[in-house]
Amino acid sequence: MYRGFRRAAQPPRFITATREGVCAETGKPIAIGDTIAWFPATRRAFHNDSKSASDLRSQQFADAWHLADANH
Fold it and tell me: What is the C-alpha to C-alpha distance for residues 4 and 72, in angstroms, rounded to an integer?
């Protein structure tokens, strides 16, 4: 199995940052211990205040409560 295929199959999720970095969208610094939105398919981390993190939070809420959204 190809390594990239396994990574692409994993859904985006919120994780705790284990290293310092910068948000791929806003350029804000990410410190160790911050909650970030991690997108394994693109290997990008987004600050918790970014639009991508907000969109992911909204999607997770809609999925948890079985709400209709644009993806279904």
Answer: 26
Q: What is the pLDDT of residues 17-59, one digit of tens each?
A: 999 999 999 999 999 999 999 999 999 999 999 999 999 999 9
pLDDT at residue 68, rounded to an integer: 81
What are the structural domain ranges in the chain? Answer: 3-64
Calpha distance 72→62 (Å, rounded): 11
Burial class (CB within 10 angstroms; exposed 0-12, middle 13-18, buried 19+) of 69: exposed
3-state secondary structure of 25: coil
Confidence check: pLDDT of 6 > 70:
no
Compute how many other C-beta atoms are within 10 angstroms of the C-beta atom of residue 39: 18
